[in-house]
Amino acid sequence: MGKFEKYTGSNGDYRFRLKARNGQNILSSEGYTTSAARDNGIESVKKNSSDENRYDLKEGASGKWHFNLKATNGQVIGSSQSYASQNSALAGIKSVMTNAPEASIVEV
């Protein structure tokens, strides 16, 4: 089972990352101004991660691929790392879909 890690960024903002069972980061948040907003972001990822229509897969100018997970209102709630290929990015999406719904939440 994956896990969400809650942490405070270097500038004092509140963030989370989703890690797969193997410990690899598969989704990261932007900074939030409050811990409550961050916690709502985690719940939104859990809720929206199983809907493949919520993912926006893109190829960057460098030729690397990444994806964003969006909430029902279209706001980005999580972003992936860069992947060398489209297939690798699609595997990352599948990993988020598998890990996020039942992921534990820990403070680091």
Brief digest:
By secondary structure, this protein is α+β, with helices and mostly antiparallel strands.
Calculate Rg over CA atoms: 13 Å
Low confidence ranges? none
Head-to-tail CA distance between termini: 17 Å
- Provide the residue-averaged pLDDT: 97
Total count of helical runs of at least 4 residues: 2
Helical content, roughly?
Answer: 25-40%
Roughly what fraction of the amino acids lie in strands?
Answer: 25-35%
Shape: globular
The major beta sheet can be summarized as: 4 strands, mixed
* SSE order: EEEHEEEHE
> How are strands sequenced across the largest beta sheet?
3-2-1-7
- Topology, number of strands: 7
Protein structure class? alpha+beta
Commentary on this structure:
The protein has 108 residues and is of the alpha+beta class. It contains 2 helices and 7 strands, in the order βββαβββαβ. The protein is globular.
Features:
single chain; 108 residues; alpha+beta; four-stranded mixed β-sheet; three-stranded antiparallel β-sheet; 2 helices; 26% helix; globular
Give the SSE map:
Layout: E1 3-8, E2 14-19, E3 25-28, H1 35-48, E4 55-59, E5 65-70, E6 76-79, H2 86-99, E7 104-107
